[in-house]
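2024-03-11 09:14:02 DEBUG pipeline.ingest accepted 1 chain
2024-03-11 09:14:02 DEBUG pipeline.ingest length=206
2024-03-11 09:14:03 DEBUG pipeline.predict start
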Amino acid sequence: MDSKQHWEQIYTTKASDNVSWFQEHAGQSLELIHNTGLGKRAAIIDVGGGASRLVDELTEEGYSDLTVLDLSSAALDVAKQRLGRHAESISWMVGDITNVELPANRFDIWHDRAVFHFLTDPVDRQAYVEQVMRTVRPDGHVIIATFAEDGPEKCSGLPVMRYKSETLHATFGDSFRLVHHQKEAHNTPFGTVQQFVYCYCRKINS
């Protein structure tokens, strides 16, 4: 089973609030987005946003230029149905972030919670970084959340990479300046705790 089939199966067989990564409120992500200081017209992409409720909260706050990308069309359908008519104002994209075609210099904020740590192949990680370099505007904001060094070794039956803030930042290289990092103890719907690390970087204007 390839990655797309895997995630389509997850979102067609499980409720979106019955997966380990579910958040009722994306507080950490929202705080970091607010901390960018950008207005409500900022162009934001949520990579691997799927059925996440971050897009609901951004819409409620008045952000008007939102893109949600996910490998699973079923995950996106969950979010569209939940948002109802508000879904019409959002750009929905199905694709693999390592090879999907995205417009150059399009986004002010790149947000990813729990996609990057699934990229265990260095080639895929490099392709991801190149996507960020190409599609985020100069001085743009990059928010990445992965499992921390003491987080799970697997998620949804798949192996993952675990990071410290400095190793996560180093993966992106000197083209990005680390602004802030912090850990989060995520409480899953199953009563367990997963350790995440968030890194907020600025793309250096070169």
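2024-03-11 09:14:41 DEBUG pipeline.report Residues 3-203 form a domain with the Rossmann fold fold (CATH 3.40.50.150).
2024-03-11 09:14:41 DEBUG pipeline.predict end
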